Amino acid sequence: MVRKSHFDPQRVREEIAIAAARLIAEDGLDYATAKRKAARQIVGETRVAGEWLPDNDQIEEEIREYQLLFQGDSQPTLLRRLRVIAVDWMERLAPFNPYLTGAVLGGTAGEHSDVHLQVFCDNPKEVAIYLLNANIQYDVSETRHFAGRGYVETLSFLWRPLNERNADPVGIHLALYETDDLRGAVRADARGRTARANLQAVQALLDGDPVTSFTN
């Protein structure tokens, strides 16, 4: 374990956050994996107490700083492409009440990022039927329920727009929720950001409207 007499916890958290942000931005690691790997790099221990670890908000801020400094020429273009693809699929899935979530919504998405959508309908199996009718092959997995109530079925597939024949395909993940899960307002965090956005809100981001709650 880390000895408090040798390290300043705040400084250690900052260094871990910076290292984790680089791993996420460059290698596409998820937050939990990047945090653990960064902790080993900085502290040199296989297990690090929670008080020494940064939270995801701190890591996210470091990702934004890293992208601004080292990916300023490419990341905005990549982000816009992913949001365009997200809007395309949200329009296709309009009968199922799709919402965008994750890094594509938050603005930190990069070359390793996928599009994560939550859909809400009375019969989630209809989403699978829609994909089958569209000749889209998908994999089935589970995603943790956003409210912590177990797991929900998730359909994942690769997608390349017809006008991007030479581009790499993008991973699309559809988390299937019951309509009742959509009830109640989505609470904003301390900085006024919400965890998901509907088609109108995502389109506003693309159109350049002053929708700051998802990006700042």
Structure, explained:
By secondary structure, the chain is α+β, with helices and mostly antiparallel strands. It has helices at 9-27, 31-43, 56-70, 75-92, 103-106, 125-133, 199-207, and strands at residues 98-101, 115-121, 139-144, 151-159, 170-178, 196-197. Strands 3-4-5-2-1-6 form a six-stranded mixed β-sheet. A hairpin with a 6-residue loop joins strand 3 (139-144) and strand 4 (151-159). Helix 1 packs across helix 2 and helix 1 (9-27) crosses helix 3. The model is unreliable at 1-5 and 209-216 (pLDDT under 50).
Secondary-structure-based class equals: alpha+beta
Major beta sheet, strand line-up: 3-4-5-2-1-6
Number of E-state strands: 6
- How far the N terminus sits from the C terminus, by CA atoms, comes to 36 Å
Unreliable runs = 1-5, 209-216
The Cα radius of gyration reads 19 Å
Q: Domain count, please report it.
A: 2
Helix segment tally: 7
CATH architecture classification of the largest domain: 2-Layer Sandwich
Largest sheet descriptor: 6 strands, mixed
Helix content: 40-55%
Mean pLDDT: 88
> What is the general shape?
globular
State the name of the first-level CATH class of the largest domain.
Alpha Beta
Query: Would you tell me which CATH topology of the largest domain applies?
Result: Beta Polymerase, domain 2
Chain-wise SSE layout:
Layout: H1 9-27, H2 31-43, H3 56-70, H4 75-92, E1 98-101, H5 103-106, E2 115-121, H6 125-133, E3 139-144, E4 151-159, E5 170-178, E6 196-197, H7 199-207
Parallel strand pairs: 2-5
Antiparallel strand pairs: 1-2, 1-6, 3-4, 4-5
Helix pairs in contact: 1-2, 1-3, 4-7
